[in-house]
Amino acid sequence: MAIILYDYWRSSAAYRLRIAFNLAGLPYETVPVDLLAGEQRSPEHLGRNPQGLVPVADIDGTLFTQSLAIIEFLDDSGYFAFLPRDIIGRARVRAMSYAIAMEIHPVCNLSVAKHAADASGGRIGMKDWMIRFIPPGLAAFEALVAQSPESSHCYGDRITMADVCLVPQLYNARRWGIDLEPYPVISEVSIRLKAKPAFSDAHPEAVHVRHEEEKTEI
Predict the structure, then answer these.
(1) Distance in angstroms (rounded) separating the CA atoms of residues 169 and 158
(2) Predicted pLDDT of residue 208
(3) Where does residue 117 rank: exposed (0-12), middle (13-18), buried (19+ CB within 10 A)?
(4) Who's near 9: CB < 8 A, 6+ residues apart?
(5) Predicted confidence (pLDDT) per residue in 10-36, tens digit
(6) 3-state secondary structure the chain
């Protein structure tokens, strides 16, 4: 299988997909898309994804968008079991994953936060926006995880799509100075996950260093 990942090192959604490919043992080539430079709005990238977003995965010539859809494709294809096999477990892991990817992430997307800051004439700072919306989302996620007692991961004792969503969201929270002490359950899960190579190799700082080294080699 040949995979090209159109990626931005700090994108939470792209971070999820890097973790997922690593867990599945699928090597991939990375093509950086510089969001700060607006490369996501270029005709070339819009041809790959009309939404102008990352990540985009070119898998054997077929373009896939939306990180959770791609992760579920990998699950459906048998590369890694990102969802439990039982239907109740699958529903619960999806609910946890969506709580991050469809509730916290869209509101706290940089373009949304920047628009709020600009539209308010600077009365709302981007950090203020993040502090307003990230903690309630994390509190709700903490409660969802706590409903699954004696779990070493977000759901049960093995990695699922919910864990793949959690780690990038906590990275983003730390970026904005969010205090994670009120969330001991998910913080403990995150510590376990970050020690695994599939997660540490996908970390934004590690990816950024690799991208810079590749540019130097060119």
Answers:
(1) 19
(2) 86
(3) middle
(4) 32, 204, 207, 208, 211
(5) 999 999 999 999 999 999 999 999 999
(6) CCEEEEECCCCHHHHHHHHHHHHHCCCCEEEECCCCCCHHHCHHHHHHCCCCCCCEEEECCEEEECHHHHHHHHHHCCCCCCCCCCHHHHHHHHHHHHHHHHHHHHHCCHHHHHHHHHHCCCCCCHHHHHHHHHHHHHHHHHHHHHCCCCCCCCCCCCCCHHHHHHHHHHHHHHHCCCCCCCCHHHHHHHHHHHCCHHHHCCCHHHHHHHHHHHHHHC
Provide the token pair at 153.
């991961």
- Within 8 A by CB and 6+ apart from 126, the residues are 110, 113, 114, 116, 117
- From CA 15, how far away is CA 202, in angstroms rounded? 6
Which of 199, 209, 210 is closest to 21 using CA atoms? Answer: 199
Cis link prior to 50 (omega < 30° from 0)? no
Query: What angle separates helix 161-175 from helix 126-146, to the nearest 10 degrees?
Result: 150
Q: Which residues contact 98 (CB under 8 A, 6 or more apart)?
A: 68
Per-residue pLDDT, 217: 64
CB atoms < 10 A from the CB of 188, how many?
12
Q: Pick left, alpha or beta for residue 61 (phi over 0 → left; psi -120 to 50 → alpha; otherwise beta).
A: left
